[in-house]
Amino acid sequence: MPLPFSPQWKDKASGFFSSSGVKLKEAGQTAGTFVGEVAKDAKGNVAEVAGRVGLSVKSRWTLLQQPSTRHAMQERLIEAAASTGSILRKGISETKDKVAVGKTKVEEVAKKTAQKSKTIITDIERWQKQLNLLFQLSSVFGVPIEVTVHREESSRPIPQILVKCADYLVLSGLNAPYLFKSEGDKKVIQQLVSSFNLDSNASLPDGVNPVDIAALVKCYLASLPEPLTTFELYEEIKGARSSINAMRNILKKLPTVNFMTLEYITALLHRVSQKSLLNKMDAQSLAMEFAPLIMWQNGQKPEYYRQYWNDPRTGQNGTDKAPTYSAWDMLAEEDDTAVASSMIPLDDGTPMDFGAIEVVQCLIQHHNAIFTDANETVWR
């Protein structure tokens, strides 16, 4: 799949933002030039007035030095003071007029600059919306699962990112301790998210830690606008958790993409649970990790994982690194020899959805019986 931005889009966008910057710079320079001219003009006018006053005083002083009577001297002083005052008043008046004109020019330029800036900002916002829409249409994370599957035109109605992650884990990662429980390297996960958002057919790099791949799976499921079990069937699926037959029949109501992806994910988790002696993740431990990602009610979306795909810059310096394990580890036994998931007493006062956990645990433990009609995944 090509990158989301074609060269034509890139050139057009680059040209737009470049021209916008030039326009803003020109507007600023124009305003600055007018202000500079006004200040220069006023300064020159004051200098001119001062020069004229200086010449006048000098000429009067020359006259005063000439021999004369006391009366004539007094008249010359009065005449000199009057003419000098007149020159000063005229010069100050001219300066005020020029400053007023300059102020008007500055206000006009500021008004035009503000209007031009507003127009440019509006254009930038419009372009940003168009580019965001284009990017969303090419992304994987945060996009409805049916849109991703339809766009990929795969032979199986399952997002390719899940297929590639599952294949990677089955081949080389099932024995990793606390698989799907450890949160992995945030920076690596963010790079993988960016890679698949640019190209949904991207490949996983060789040598990536299986823990990071497992975390990528969780990030993808958490980014879906609606869970795999859908909002509509939440109560029905939750109510059927004690009956395999009832669960099988209700899951058939799911859209094909949701049903096949749910089967694929729970098949992978079933495979992981078969290696629980090595990876310390049995069905209950896995259910506790995946229940909030597979089954949630409207308005209760798991927001923690948003940090990985919503703002790639957050946390890359490691200053706000999340804890190695999730909050559910607080319920674990301190003894390392204990079973991976001990029995937990139900407590309706906690935010944890134990009903959803029981559903996912049922799907993992009884996967083959529940998905018998789904041509379920068989791992090599």
Automatic annotation (TrEMBL):
<feature type="domain" description="Rho-GAP">
    <location>
        <begin position="143"/>
        <end position="371"/>
    </location>
</feature>
<dbReference type="InterPro" id="IPR008936">
    <property type="entry name" value="Rho_GTPase_activation_prot"/>
</dbReference>
<dbReference type="Pfam" id="PF00620">
    <property type="entry name" value="RhoGAP"/>
</dbReference>
<dbReference type="InterPro" id="IPR000198">
    <property type="entry name" value="RhoGAP_dom"/>
</dbReference>
<protein>
    <recommendedName>
        <fullName>Rho-GAP domain-containing protein</fullName>
    </recommendedName>
</protein>
